[in-house]
Amino acid sequence: MSQRVFEILHTSSAIFDDQGGFESFDSEPHGQSAGDQPSRVSLAVLLLAGLYFDSSVALWQNVYKDAQVRFDGPNCEAVHDWVLTNRRGFPWEGANAPHALHGADGCPPPLAKQLKEPKEAIMFRRLEPSKEADAVEKEDSQCSWKAVVHVPTGRLKCKPQSFTKGCALSLQATCGLILYYSYNYWVGGFELIKECFQIRRLLKFSVVGAMFGCGAVFSFLAQDALSPGSYALYAQSGVVIVPIMWRILFRQPLPVLTWVHICIITLGILAYRISEIDLDHMFDGIGKFPALSAARASLKRELSCIGLMWVALKVLMAGLGSVVAELLLKQDTSLPFTVQVACILPSKALACLLTIWLIPGPDMEWPNHLPDRPGGFFHDWSMWTWVIVFHNLGDTILSAAVAKQFDSVAKAICGVVGIIFPTWVVSYLCGWEDLVLKSSAGQLKMTGGVVVIVGSFAYVLGRAQNNELRKSQDEVARLSQRSGVVELT
C-alpha cells in the first residue's frame, strides 16, 4: 500500500463524525510543506470524492431495497399466491366492505400486472386479522421481500427483506481497524502496535467507540425507514443539537447570530415534518369516510415517526460521541492520532455487533435476535450490501483526507451541498421522494427543505467568520499586551 494512502489515514486534529468519519477541531487547514502541497486538480477531485461518498450511502441503500424486491423468483411463489388469493381485500371493522388490494407499483412487475387484471372466477380465501391489527403480512424465509397489506385502506406494500445493520457496520469497523493497524505498523513497527493494545487506553476510549457504533447503526436504520432526501434533511438537526451540547458541557457562549441560524434550521425542519402529515387530506376525516381517512393518516405518521426516532437517536449518540471524543483526544496530545483511532474502533465494532440483540426488533420485541433466514449473520447480503459497506468505509477514509487538506468549513459546506446533489436530485429522479409540487404539502415540503439548506449555509459561514473574528481579537490582545511590556521596559 502506498505511502500516500497511509497519509490519508493520519489526521492529527480530528474527531469522528456520525458515520465514523472525521471532523476537524478547528477551522484551519492542516498545513503541509510547500513541496508536498497537492495540485488544485487533486484537491478538486478529493473534494468531489468526499462529497460523493458522504452523500451516497443512503442512496445505495435504496438501490439495495429496490433490488431486493426485483429479485423475484420461485422462492416467492407462496407470497405471490397469498396476495392474489386475497386481492379482494380483508374484512375490517371500520368499513362496510373490504377494500381491494391496490398500490402495487413498487412490487415485482408480474405481481403488479396480475393485480391490475380483471378479477374473474377465483376462489378467494379470507384471512381474518385481529381487530387490533391494522396490517397483515406474508413472508417466506427464502423470499427477498414480504407483502404487507394495510387492511383499512387495502394498500399493498412489497417490503424488502434487509440485512442486519449491526453485522455490516461491525464488519466495516473491523476493516477500518485493520487499515489503522497497518498504518501504525508502517510508521512505528511493533512498538506503535503495542500502544494500540494497552488495556487502560482501550477501556478509556470504549465509551466513545460504543457511542459511535450505536450512532452508525441508528443512522443505517433511519436511512432504511426514510427516503434519502428526508434522512439527509432531518440529519441536519445535528446542527441544532451539537452546539447546544457544546454550550452546556463546555460552557462556551454562542453568538446571537448562531442562535438565529439554529432557529431558522429548526423552523425549516418543522415545516418539512408538517408537510409529511399530508395537508391536502388533513381534514378528510370530517367527510364521508372518517375511519378510512384516519387510518390512512395513521399509517403515514407511523412510517415517518419510526425514521424520526432513529434520526433523533443517531444525532444524540453522534453528538455525545463527538463531545466525549474531543475531551479524550485532547487530553493526550502526545499519543499519535492513529493509535487513538485504533483504540476506538474495537469497541465500535463490538457495539455494532451487540445492537443485534440490544435494539428492539420490528415489533418492539426484546431482547432481539437474528431473523430466521438463510445466511446467519450475513442473511440477505448481496452485491449491493458490499457496495454499501465499501461506500461507508470510503466515507470514513475520505472524511479524514478532507479534514487533512481542507478546513472544517469546507467539509461542512460539502455536507450541505450533498443534500441538494446528489441526494435530493438523484432521489427525486429515481422516484424515492414523495414530492408533488402542485399540492400544498409538496410546496411546504420544498419550502422547508430550502429553508434548512439556506440556514445551514448561513450557520457554517457564520461560524467561520466568528472563528476568524475571535482569532483576530486574540491577536490584537496579544499585540497590545506585548506593546505594554515594551513601554514598561
From TrEMBL:
Keywords: Membrane, Transmembrane, Transmembrane helix. SUPFAM superfamilies: Multidrug resistance efflux transporter EmrE. Its main location: membrane. The keyword Membrane applies. It comes from the Eukaryota. InterPro entries: EmrE-like (IPR037185), Nuc_sug_transpt (IPR007271). The keyword Transmembrane helix applies. It is found in: Membrane. The chain crosses the membrane at residues 202-222, 228-249, 256-274, 308-329, 341-361, 381-402, 409-429, 441-461. It is a multi-pass membrane protein. This is EamA domain-containing protein.
